[in-house]
Amino acid sequence: MSESDNPTAALRAAVRERRMPDARTRRTLLQSDDPALSRQAGRVLKRLTVDGDRPREVEVAVLATCTIGPFEPLLRAQLVGTGLLPTLRTADYGTFDMSLATGSFTGDGDPDLVAVLMDAGYFLPGDWNAAEPDVLEKYVEARLEEFRTLLAGALNHTAATVVVHTVPLPTQVRNGIISVRARSQVVRAWYQLNASLLALAEEHAQVVTVDLVGELAEAPVQACDIRLHRYGDLPYGDDALLLLARLVRRIAQARAGLSRKVLALDLDNTLWGGVLGEVGPQGVQLGGLYPGNCYTELQRTVARLREQGVILVLTSKNDKDQVDRVLAEHPDVVLRPDAFSVRMVDWAAKAGNLRRAAEALSLSTESFVFMDDSDFERAQVGGELPEVAVVSAAGDPAHLVDSLVRNGWFDVVALTDTDRKRPELYRNRALRGDFSSGFDSSEDFLKALNLGVEVTSATEYTIARISQLAARTNQFNLTGIRYDEAATRRMSGEAGHLVLSVSVTDRFGDEGIVGALWVQRTPDVWRVLNLVLSCRVLSRGVERAAVGWLAGEAAKAGARTIEGRFRRSDRNGVAAGFWAGAGFTRAASAETTDTENTEIFVLDAATAAGITPEWIALNERNGSPHE
After folding, report:
1. CA distance linking residue 388 with residue 378, whole number of Å
2. Which pLDDT score is estimated for 230?
3. DSSP per residue over 560-571, as a string?
4. How many Å apart are CA 467 and CA 38, to the nearest integer?
5. Lowest-confidence range among 186-200, 342-356, 416-430, 522-536?
6. CA-based angle 211:212:218, to the nearest 5?
7. Cα–Cα distance between 360 and 370 in angstroms, integer?
8. pLDDT tens-digit profile of 241-259?
9. Taking a C-beta distance cutoff of 8 angstroms, is the pair 423, 310 a contact?
10. Helix, strand or coil, per DSSP, at residue 429
11. Half-sphere exposure at residue 363, Cβ-oriented, CA atoms within 13 angstroms
12. pLDDT in tens, 13-37
């Protein structure tokens, strides 16, 4: 058996060679429902170190009210599966309340993420009277309040994102109450407990609550092995712990900006039933009874994803005229032609079409999810583009929606206005491509675009988008420092720092917030700690306009020097010459940070006027940041 057919062997080879597992193996880890495989994988990966260019790293503290069992290796396998290099630290058994009270989750600095594992025993008394449901209800409420107080105190000591989960009510408790009315009262109190746990995410920006109870209700797994619970205080079985590890991974993935942006879809037996070329436009299965209603529900789900910012690509081996006719005229089609930012309807290989779609969108194929019913097409795409997440549309169409959404490919920490506008923004990009074909030079094209750039201080409404850009931008990311939402919020309120958003408009519409700067400012020097810009607006001079605006503001504030930094990564080569191209001079020596060279560039703030390209108008709205 080859390593490609044996995930554990492939993982051992990666550990031995000190590299991240390949994309195909990572995809297997994410999509496996076998806790034994994930547990074994997680144990192998405990020894994983990576030489050379390191992937995104994440430190996770696991804090539990009970024995965690195999949760640590299960979580490690999920995190590596999404492309993260994790460090996991588990608090000692029995120290849950103390760790929360002191805000000390690890003995070695502040983690990025705290995964809280709770069982029902934390909220229930050891002994209780089933004939007195009022007493039990009040006890649960009191324990919830104690937990809420401890958690609020802990958040004062950490910048970590804390992941809490809903807690299932044990069957033995529910069925141990023989009064139907009393049983309903206790179950209601437990629902209120879980509703309050979910509400913690609304009370605290650092808290995310995942719905383990909802997952267990839908998954065909046993939540608890009662013998292991009694024997070793292990309240959850391996299957339930794998579900929880997957939920925590989805948060880590979204927080790190590793979620997908593009959904590429087949048509025949995916978005509708039947093969168009065989049954004709009137014969495809959509709407009505089964199975047509399954395809309609998938289209509705895809439409909802698009409303939340997922970019849709159509890739189908079909006759284009027939496809256009069905999409435009069929009464039960939900996804009309303008729902797709790119349409690839031809007889070419789908892997090649996905590459071309990625080029048209100026996105990496790493941001793609591909859904198709054909074993051949999925294998061809998976073989040539292993970084693409491949979803099967084969089998019973009743499972189509679950197959698409169950792994959380598109999760984001918070939905921003730019997310909602993204599909239309990328459709406009195609229009710009058509528009550019009528000009003799790129500069003529840029002048005709009527570009406007607005740089403004971060607000409560834009901090989420700014921190999202920090997490998700790889190509034009000058230093690779990924300030999260908490750090961005803190810096935006400090007199010695400045956090800025960069917005772009042109003749085709509003691109929204596409860039951000984090600046440290002193009376003499303004230092750009990092500058990021979405790849969709590269090559228009937007980055130079942003720095030109900043230099002008620094000069107004009396600063003499603008300082820029660049630290090379394996993906930001496109930005390597930015500072020099904007007129900055490389400093005599380079600063060393975390064993990697950071090049320093300086510019006299008085030269600001020459930085902004002549085809860009700087729009003003909120005044100067130093006022």
Report:
1. 10
2. 85
3. -EEEEEE---SS
4. 31
5. 416-430
6. 100
7. 17
8. 999 999 999 999 999 989 9
9. yes
10. helix
11. 28
12. 999 999 999 999 999 999 899 999 9
Query: What one-letter code names the amino acid at 255?
Result: R
- The angle subtended at Cα 134 by Cα 132 and Cα 138, nearest 5°, is 125
Strand partners, 372: 392
| pTM of the predicted protein model | 0.78
Give me the pLDDT at residue 2, please: 46
Q: Give all strands (DSSP E) within 145-253, no chain letters.
A: 161-165, 207-210
Six token digits for residue 53: 């260019």
Name every residue whose Cβ is closer than 8 Å to that of residue 123 and which is 6 or more positions away in sequence. 140, 143, 144, 147, 167, 193
Q: Phi and psi (nearest 5°) for 625?
A: -70, -15
Average pLDDT over every residue of 214-223: 90
Instruction: Check whether 214 has a pLDDT greater than 80.
Output: yes
Three-class SS state of 521: strand
Q: What is the mean pLDDT of residues 272-287?
A: 92
Residue 613 · residue 544 · CB < 8 Å: yes
Render pLDDT for 566-623 as a digit per residue (tens, 0 to 9). Answer: 998 877 888 889 999 999 999 876 554 444 578 999 999 888 768 999 899 998 754 4
Q: Is 168 exposed, middle or buried (0-12, 13-18, 19+ CB in 10 A)?
A: buried
Secondary element (H or E) of residue 292: helix 292-307
With b for 16 or more beta-carbon neighbours within 10 A and e for fewer, the 194-204 pattern comes to bebbbebbeee
Tokens of 147: 């937990």
Query: Cα–Cα distances in Å, from 218 out to 117, 184, 241, 509?
Result: 20, 22, 15, 43
Amino acid occupying residue 180: V
What is the Cα–Cα distance from 448 to 442, expressed in whole angstroms? Answer: 10
Token digits of residue 420: 């909602």
Contact (CB, 8 A) for 242 and 35 = yes
Task: Measure Cα distances from 143 to 140, 149, 164, 203 in Å.
Answer: 5, 10, 15, 18
Distance in angstroms (rounded) separating the CA atoms of residues 326 and 479: 48
CB-CB contact of 491 with 483 (8 Å)? yes
8: three-class secondary structure by DSSP:
helix
pLDDT average, residue stretch 366-391: 95
* 285 secondary structure, DSSP code: B
Q: Running DSSP on this structure, what letter comes out for residue 230?
A: H
Cα 393 to Cα 421: distance, rounded to the nearest angstrom: 27
Q: Do the beta carbons of residue 221 and residue 239 sit within 8 Å?
A: yes
Give residue-wise pLDDT tens across range 185-201: 999 999 999 999 999 99
Distance CA 207, CA 199 (A): 10
100-143, pLDDT tens digit by residue? 888 777 666 789 999 999 999 999 998 989 999 999 999 999 99
Q: How many residues does the chain have?
A: 627
What is the average pLDDT across 168-196? 95
Return all residues near 319 (Cβ < 8 A) that are at least 6 apart.
276, 277, 345
Buried b (16+ CB within 10 A) or exposed e, 318-339: beeeebeebbeebebbbbeeeb
Which structure tokens are listed for 33? 């429902």
**491 in Cβ contact with 518 (< 8 Å):** yes
Phi, psi of 446 (to 5 degrees): -65, -40
